[in-house]
Amino acid sequence: MSELLSKVGYGGFFGIVWGALLLRYVLFAGLTFWIVWILLGKKLSHKLIQGKKPDKKKILHEIRYSLLTFFVFALSGIFVAWSQVNGYNLVYDRVSDYGVPYLLLSVVMLILLHDTYFYWTHRMMHHKSLFKHFHLVHHRSTNPSPWAAFSFHPLEAIVEAGIIPLASVIFPLHQTAMFVFFLYMTSLNVLGHLSYELFPSWFLKSPFTNWHNTTTHHNLHHRFFNCNYSLYFNFWDKVMGTNHEKYKQTFEEISSRSSSYEEIGEVTAAEITSKDAAAV
Ligand SMILES: [Zn+2]
Ligand SMILES: [Zn+2]
């Protein structure tokens, strides 16, 4: 990172990071949207979790705020690179400094740290004093599309961007580890907002997979607000008793559907008020 920064300067670095974030968004959210929503939409209509797609206005809202989020994320990238140049964090450039086994371990540590960071910051942003200012923008999508993956108010975007600056002062991080983490995070984030349940019906019954979240899990969070706060793993929701009481039942019902499903009335954004936000 420091090498790139010295070559292109802060302005160039910001532009490259913002462009890369945009490309990542278009590739992951756009491709998923095109394949699942456009190409296979009719075939998979029985797998629509809420029985229908969100309206187009909501999708435009999700894209607008995601583009804004990338400005915040790019600034966070500059902050991490600046910290590295000045020796304020543990970001390193040569893989040989810590070796390949550590590189792989650091990806796992980053994912585990982010899972905990996300759960607790997410619950914090659901506190009634913070919800409207930080998190309401994301919850405008009560039936989200893949484009909602980065649809955050700039204040929430600052919180979400905090994971790399935090991790980089706790343990050594190479840019390859960050890159792999970003691929995993973006894939799971897009999958969580897919609106179609594509996980197999045995997923929550098997001890090999039931520790991982599904699309239904995050979709229920967008619909009911005060449950299912976790991102990748079901660990913190289980420990804190915050899983939706009918999560497993709902997942099994949707994932085993084989025919069209009746429409469910969408909760409108107008119904969203800070009183809906669950207190920590
Ligand atoms: Zn969401
Ligand atoms: Zn939330």
From TrEMBL:
GO terms for cellular component: membrane. One of its GO terms (biological process) is lipid biosynthetic process. Keywords: Membrane, Transmembrane, Transmembrane helix. Residues 107-242 form the Fatty acid hydroxylase domain. It is found in: Membrane. This is Fatty acid hydroxylase family protein. Pfam families: FA_hydroxylase. GO terms for molecular function: iron ion binding; oxidoreductase activity. The chain crosses the membrane at residues 12-41, 62-82, 102-120. The keyword Transmembrane applies.
